[in-house]
Amino acid sequence: MTRVCAVAAPLLLLAHGILRWLGGDGPARATGHAVFLLAMLFFALLASLLRPLAGSSPLATTATAATVLGAATSGWATVGRDAAGWATGGWATGGWGVAGWGAAGDLAEPAGRALPLTGTLAPAGPLLVQFGLLVLLSLLSFAEPRRLPVWSPFAVLAGFLAVAADPGLLPLAALAIGAGLAPLARRRPPPPVPPPPALPPPPPVLPPPVLPPALPLPLPLSERSE
Question: Transmembrane residues, as ranges (predicted)?
Fold first, then answer.
């Protein structure tokens, strides 16, 4: 499952970035948001799977919790933005003029009021995901035993910095993140089977003991008298 998450998460980010390039409302925007939600889900699942490999330190636990919380926050912020579009009917006036969008907006708007997302928490979601993943990858790259190459977290960091500098670079950032996660997607060979324990050497063969020459037996008394 780790291999699936390591491949699916950056590919979904790549698809989201391409859909952002296409722009516009309607199907491209809705599909892009759905793809982004799936990417966050796979990132959270990947962090949970990497947690046992990174050790039982408090830092690994904190990084995993930050990734899961950030993914949930980012997903809720995306749903909230979609709820606003559905409720206002902005998308229904375009090519997607179907009653389903209006019904979804009617359901999502009360949910947004019940669990509001503050303006400071919404942008913190991606930062938490980035922090958690970078910490987990760094633990796997620098702590013994090393399970990832040293360049892996730096490639993921380059992708995060690219999208932070310009959201339009999201497809390129997704490729960098995918390169950093590629070692997790490789099929690892089975561990070598240890050789059987060596048998103890046989005991040395000792030569037979040399017996002293046998002494002549004394004659019986009857023979002595003769």
Answer: 30-50, 121-142, 154-182
